[in-house]
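Ticket #4471: structure export looks truncated?
Reporter: QA, pipeline team
Priority: medium

Steps to reproduce: submit the single chain below to the structure queue and open the exported record.
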Amino acid sequence: MKNNPNNVFIDTNVLIGAYCNNDTDKRCLQYLYSLKGKRLFISSLSVAQLVSVFQKKKINKEIKQIVQDLLNKFTVIGFVQKDIENAMRLEYSDMEDSIQYEICSKFKCGFFITNNIKDYRFFTNINVIKPLKIRIIAQ
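Actual output as written to the record:
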């Protein structure tokens, strides 16, 4: 089955950037929220990473508000042992990126939004886009 151009996966670094007031990442998410007919996905791995990063920067109440905001705007894709095993079969250096790719692939996402394009250059079946270039995704 072909990837669905209406399914958009957002990487952890974009989420963290947006909630740390990085203007490009914030504008990227605002643009994605405005699109009609697109389904926005993040992984449960991203939520865990975001919480871990913010534990040192924000109070618990702020972190809970951010997580609630994410739950309101995204479909969170879980991952299981098989996803990790599939990721381990990939011959790329960054294991976390391989896991994110596997999670993204579960829902046939047509777009993968990340600040680390170079980490995903090997995954040729998805459109990897930097937040700065987000307007490529048409309504």
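Status: closed, not a bug. The export was complete when the record was re-opened. Leaving a note from the reviewer for reference: The CA atoms of residues 74 and 106 lie 15 Å apart.
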